[in-house]
Amino acid sequence: MDDLFRLAAIEDIKRCKARYIRGTDTMDWPLFGSAFTEDAVWDLRGFAVARRPWDGEWNNVGAGAFDFAFLDSLSAIVPWPVTGRAAIARAAGDHTKWAGSFHALFNPEIEILTEDTARASWPFEDTLHFPEGAPIRQFNGFAYYHETYERIDGEWLIRTCTLQRLLCSMR
């Protein structure tokens, strides 16, 4: 595998992740789903619970009046893990239809493992706004997506996606 192939693969993976994020923030669930393989696994359990990376304990900085049990219970909204492109797109749409969001991704670490497999870590910040009357009105978080990718028929797609939340602020 030469350098040109690796660089092109990295750019294709960045475009795939851009579809995922744009689909999320614009609530375009077919676009969002197009970033995944047919049999992908999406597991964002604990998305509202920040954990310290050195020991895995709850990082309550910014949690405000919200306790661990409440924040951890938010994961139950979706039966994690979700398997399959269609199920992932449906779960994402059902899970976020009541919130406006914006995600900003930063410099990813992308490793091309073979001509058809890769893995990446994406640092990101997400902001979600919830309607009047919701228990949380605004959520701002910092996390990493950890993903594997597969190239199918020349297109790089997400095979697995997990999330590691480091810090969040809520009100």
The biggest sheet amounts to: 7 strands, mixed
Structural class: alpha+beta
**What value does the average pLDDT take?**
94
Shape: globular
Proportion of helical residues: 25-40%
The tally of helices reads 4
Order of helices and strands: HHEHEHEEEEE
Number of strands: 7
Share in β-strands: 35-45%
Q: Unreliable segments (pLDDT under 50, ≥5 consecutive)?
A: none
Q: What is the gyration radius calculated from CA atoms?
A: 16 Å
Spatial separation of the terminal alpha carbons:
49 Å
Summarize the structure.
With 171 residues, the protein is of the alpha+beta class.
SSE order and pairing:
Blueprint: H1 3-26, H2 29-33, E1 36-43, H3 68-73, E2 82-83, H4 85-96, E3 100-105, E4 109-112, E5 117-129, E6 138-152, E7 155-170
Parallel strand pairs: 1-7
Antiparallel strand pairs: 1-2, 3-5, 4-5, 5-6, 6-7
Could you explain how this protein is built, in words?
- It is a single chain.
- With 171 residues, the protein is α+β, with helices and mostly antiparallel strands.
- Helix content is 27%, strand content 37%.
- The protein has four helices and seven strands; from the N terminus they run H-H-E-H-E-H-E-E-E-E-E.
- It has helices at 3-26, 29-33, 68-73, 85-96; strands spanning 36-43, 82-83, 100-105, 109-112, 117-129, 138-152, 155-170.
- Strands 1, 2, 3, 4, 5, 6 and 7 form a seven-stranded mixed sheet that branches.
- A hairpin with a 4-residue loop joins strand 4 (109-112) and strand 5.
- The relative contact order is 0.23.
- The mean pLDDT is 94.
